[in-house]
From TrEMBL:
Record-given protein name: UPF0434 protein ACCUM_4044
Pfam families found in the cross-reference section: Trm112p
The organism's taxonomic lineage, starting at the top: Bacteria, Pseudomonadati, Pseudomonadota, Betaproteobacteria, Candidatus Accumulibacter
Similarity remark: In the N-terminal section; belongs to the LpxK family. Belongs to the UPF0434 family.
GO cellular component terms, semicolon-separated: cytosol
Length: 58
């Protein structure tokens, strides 16, 4: 992921900053508890594509 892109991407639902998880290829929104996938280097910022994660994963 390009660091400049990470600086401007926010959660499409709540507009919170996202945390990049390189090992899972995901962008996490902690307030919404959603993980947005990154496929072939492209973040998929659609709510229906995101998965819910538990507080244990933080």
């Amino acid at each position: 992921m390009d660091a400049r892109l990470l600086d401007i991407l926010v959660c499409p639902i709540c507009k919170a900053n996202l945390e990049y998880r390189r090992t899972q290829s995901e962008l996490l929104c902690k307030p919404c508890r959603l993980a947005f996938p990154i496929r072939d280097g492209i973040p998929i910022m659609l709510e229906e594509e995101a998965r819910q994660f538990s507080s244990d994963e933080l």
